[in-house]
Amino acid sequence: MCTMEQRGRVFVLTLTGDDEHRLSHALIASIRSSVASVAAASASAGPGTALVTVGEGRFFSNGLDNIWAGTSRERLQGLVDELRPLAADLLALPMPTIAAITGHAAAGGFLLALCHDYRIMRGDRGVLYMSEVDIGLPLPPYFVSVLRAKITAANALRDVTLRGRKLKAAEAKEMGIVDAVCPGPAETAAEAIKLAEQLAARKWDGNVYASIRMSIFPEACRSIGIVEESDEEKRKHFASRL
Amino acid sequence: MEPNNLCTVERRGRVHVITLTGAGEHRLGPALLGAIRSAVAASAGAGALVLAAEGKFFSNGFDQAWARTVPLHLQATMEDAFRALVADLLALPVPTVAAVTGHAAAAGCALALAHDAVFMRASRGFLYMSEADAGIKIIDFFAEIMREKVPDAVVRRDLLLRGDRMPAAEAVRRGMVDVAVEGGVDDVVNAAVGEAEKLAARGWDGDVVVEIRKAAWPKLWSKVKDYGGAGTPAVATPRL
After folding, report:
1. A205 domain-assigned
2. Residue B137 at interface with chain A, using a CB cutoff of 8 Å
3. Chain B window 186-225: which residues touch A at a Cβ cutoff of 8 Å?
4. Residue B48: which of B8, B99, B87, B122 has the closest Cα?
5. Staple partner for B29: which of A233, B66, B186, B219, CB 3.0–4.6 Å?
6. Cβ contact A51:A97 at 8 Å
């Protein structure tokens, strides 16, 4: 379902197979486990690592497993609840994170991509799409928090959430949602790894990096269940380094 | 205001100009912060305020060298003094303009952003949030300055998470700085003073300016208001 490999200072998480990478309980658990292993490995690896998340096939991820959930609200809510701690793991990850959007990213899949620091997307095919308004589902509160944290231009936020606009990479880049556009999936993955290597080379202390990330959007962190460190704890950390 | 060798004040027309003196980094330690606070308090009767600096730096941030010499509980006085200065600026009944005449890093960058308008030297100097590179976490009120004054998610990320060094032209394009000014330090100051004069000429009711400013940045005001503003006297030197 997913694999994790280390290439030098870069961890590469691949959503495997040419399917929709629907976020089922199994896939979410699998990704969480991989992300946890990365967080652990980074502690021993020392400063200067990065994560790239990439998908095989035509999809990055088509969102939560609505097929399995069917008409069951409990099942759907269960999946929504299961994705939240994965989003939290990513927002708290002690290293730069890059989503290599190698195919469609819809709903929960789009959210997954947004939970990364950077987004690189193929320009030839694939769209970013918050499908909830079209399907007739409200957005879970933590989805909204992350959307508001990452898409700050009011028109862009409106287009994504209220218009259900399907964004190709070039449009997404203009709206500030995607950082770079590449010709195809191979180039997208390569560019993402190249960026990851550049960011890893900055040798940022992972704990500090994650702390600064969380201070950029504390409301999204609260909404997703992360408790930010107190000022006191931050000061102690600073003093210990003097 | 008592003379000191840290900053000067002068009136140019209706504009109260504070200049951080000397060719150094204008590190924001308790002494300089106290001097700036006194200088800000001395602006009574002026129509607008400009904060500028001599030399290559606007300000390179907190005085970490000083922080190394004092125990943890006294380091807080530097942070508190900065918080108080931000409160003073938010509560000032006249428009404020930062003349970023050189490099502005970390607290120096935040200080510039705490003004109503920012003019910056185009040919030299950059804005730089050095915390990620320096391995320093950002405390809440400080992050709030950035959150309120740098609303765009991508700019915030590039500045804070990537430690981009942003020259004036880019800072203008990305919405952090109002005007990039060609020329030298004096040209930047003159341009900032010119803008300040225009703002002063609007003849705005000072109390209204303060209330509107506090309403525009409510989260930031709530996090600094207990430290300064509202005529709180400048921080005295800590008891030894």
Report:
1. no
2. yes
3. none
4. B99
5. B66
6. yes
Residue A43 lies in a domain: yes
In sequence order, which ranges of chain A are alpha helices (DSSP H)? 25-45, 66-69, 73-91, 108-114, 132-135, 141-150, 154-161, 169-174, 185-200, 206-216, 218-224, 231-241
When the pLDDT of each residue in chain A is averaged and rounded to a whole number, the result is 96
Domain that includes residue A193, residue range: 2-200
Whether A214 is covered by a domain: the verdict is: no
Task: Band the pLDDT of B1: cuts 50, 70, 90.
Answer: low
Q: Give the ipTM.
A: 0.95
pTM over cut 0.90: yes
Q: Closest Cα to residue A86, out of A15, A170, A16?
A: A15
Nearest residue of chain B to residue A173 (CA atoms):
B154
Task: Kindly give the parts of chain A with pLDDT less than 70.
Answer: none
Q: How many residues does chain B have?
A: 240
Q: Which residue has the tokens 């209204």?
A: B208
Contact: A208, B131; criterion CB under 8 Å: yes
Q: What are phi and psi of B120, to 5 degrees?
A: -140, 145
CATH number where A105 lies: 3.90.226.10
Report which DSSP code applies to A64.
B
Interface test with B, best of A120, A238, A240, A241 (most B CBs within 10 A): A238
First CA to last CA distance, chain A: 45
Residues forming beta bridges with residue A176, ordered by sequence position: none
Query: What is the C-alpha to C-alpha distance for residues B123 and B99, in angstroms, rounded to an integer?
Result: 14
Partners of B52 in the β-ladder: B19
Tally of structural domains, chain A: 1
Q: Find chain A residues with C-beta within 8 A of B162's C-beta.
A: 199
Judged by a CB distance cut-off of 8 A, whether residue B147 touches chain A is yes
DSSP A125-172: S--EE-THHHHT-PPPHHHHHHHHHH--SHHHHHHHHTS-PEEPHHHH
| A123 located within any domain | yes
